[in-house]
Structure formats: structure tokens, C-alpha cells
Design brief:
Mean pLDDT: 79
Largest sheet: none
Order of helices and strands: HHHHHHHHHHHHHHH
Number of helices: 15
Number of strands: 0
Strand content: under 5%
Radius of gyration: 21 Å
Helix content: over 70%
Low-confidence stretches: 1-13
Length: 250
């Protein structure tokens, strides 16, 4: 394989294939026993449990009860007729989860409390981390729904950063990523290229190119991650704008 062919293949490997994203797999399943759709749903649940924990906590539950509720909700979602509740009209996984947890809290908690704690199929929750994150959130007048969306946006950005970091580690460029990462998070003037070039023993021009590529890859991974949570390709841009609006509202 030539160098150009290798680069083309590498780019293709990194390109999103929308029909295989998690939420579209769940929605396209034809029956409730579809292993692929169940696996896709569980992947999403593992990733986005923290926003739900935040939502439940904001509803006034103690940390222990909020943990129990979130675990029982995921057991209910994964084991019951979840596909019957997931339809194209719901669109975004974010909206589906919020609607579902509200219904669960209203109709299922009394029944769930009678079950043995930890029974059934449970998504592992890092409860200490979740509670620490909740304590660090500003104490303000946000509604539970607003807190859920804010935490959802942060979780999504964390996923993107973790994927980006993993790519650099895989390519043996851990130091490069650690040095350039602040260029994604702060103002351009806070990260002078000359200083970064000195740290990395690179030319200033090479640093500019590296930062440009880093930002391009970050934007692509962000779109990929959002695509995992919406039902249709045309929803990606709207969801991206919405999540940035949520973060700006903080």
C-alpha cells in the first residue's frame, strides 16, 4: 500500500459511519431481543449515567437514594421494553433519557425500592466520583432538567477529550497532546506558539500546524460523539448548537 493509500485508509477509518452509531442502532432494531441494539443501548447508558445521577440528586434525593434510583432505572431500561419506548419521534437520546427517568421516578420507584439492592442488570456507577462532581457544581437555581443538560454537555466533551487523548497515546505522542491540550481549552493568546515550540523542541510553524490539526480532529470527534446520540445525520448540527448554548448559559 502506498503512502497516499495508507493516509486515505487512515482517514476513512476515522470518518464517522452514521448508520453504525449507537442511538441509530437502537432505533433501527426490529425486535426487543436484538443483541446489537441492546449492546448499543448499554454503551450509551454506561457513558451518560452521570447526567441522570445529577438530575435525580437535583430532585432532592440523598446520594444513596440517587445512586439506587439511577441503577434501578438503568436495570429497568435495559431489561424491560425499552425499544418500545424508543422511537424516531423522540429523536435525541438525551431527550429520551430525560423523559424516561421522569416516568420512572413517577411510576416505578415504589416498586423498585422493594427489590434487593444491586439485583438485576446494573450499570456500574462510580458513585463517589458522581457525588464529588455534584458537590463541585455551582449551588444555584438551576432546575433538575437544566442541571441534567449541563452535565450531559460536559460528559459529552469529556468523552471527546478522552478519545482524542487515546489517539495520541496510541500514536506515541502523549507529550505532544499534553502540551497542546490547553490550546483546545483556553484563549489563543494564552498559549503563545513560541513558548510551546520551545517546550516541544519544534519550530513555531510546526506547532501552528500541529495545533490546527488537533483542533480539526477535536471538532470531528465532537461531531462523531454527538452523532452517537441522535437519530438522524441532519440532527447533528442542531444538537451541537444546542449543547453549546447550554454551556454558554452557565
Amino acid at each position: 500500500m502506498s503512502i497516499s493509500e495508507a493516509e486515505t485508509q487512515k482517514a476513512a477509518d476515522r470518518s464517522p459511519v452514521f448508520v453504525t452509531t449507537h442511538w441509530s442502532v437502537v432505533l433501527s432494531a426490529k425486535d426487543n431481543d436484538s443483541f446489537r441494539s441492546a449492546e448499543a443501548l448499554e454503551t450509551l447508558c454506561h457513558t451518560y449515567w452521570h447526567p441522570l445521577y445529577t438530575f435525580v440528586k437535583r430532585r432532592g434525593y440523598s446520594p444513596a437514594d440517587a445512586e439506587d434510583l439511577t441503577q434501578e432505572f438503568f436495570a429497568w431500561l435495559l431489561e424491560r421494553n425499552w425499544l418500545g419506548r424508543a422511537d424516531q419521534e423522540r429523536g435525541r437520546f438525551r431527550s429520551f433519557l430525560l423523559t424516561s427517568i421522569c416516568n420512572f421516578l413517577a411510576n416505578q420507584w415504589d416498586k423498585a425500592r422493594t427489590q434487593k439492592r444491586g439485583s438485576g442488570r446494573i450499570v456500574s456507577l462510580q458513585s463517589h466520583e458522581a457525588e464529588t462532581g455534584f458537590v463541585l457544581e455551582p449551588a444555584d437555581s438551576l432546575t433538575p432538567e437544566q442541571s441534567f443538560e449541563w452535565r450531559w454537555a460536559l460528559t459529552l466533551l469529556d468523552q471527546v477529550m478522552n478519545r482524542l487523548s487515546a489517539e495520541f497515546v496510541r500514536d506515541g505522542k502523549t507529550e505532544l497532546f499534553a502540551t497542546l491540550k490547553p490550546c483546545l481549552l483556553g484563549e489563543r493568546t494564552m498559549q503563545p506558539y513560541a513558548i510551546l515550540a520551545s517546550k516541544l523542541a519544534m519550530t513555531e510553524g510546526s506547532v501552528k500546524v500541529a495545533v490546527h490539526r488537533l483542533r480539526q480532529r477535536y471538532r470531528q470527534l465532537l461531531r462523531d460523539e454527538i452523532a452517537n446520540t441522535v437519530a438522524k445525520p441532519e440532527e447533528v448540527e442542531d444538537e451541537l448548537r444546542y449543547l453549546f448554548a447550554v454551556l454558554a448559559g452557565r
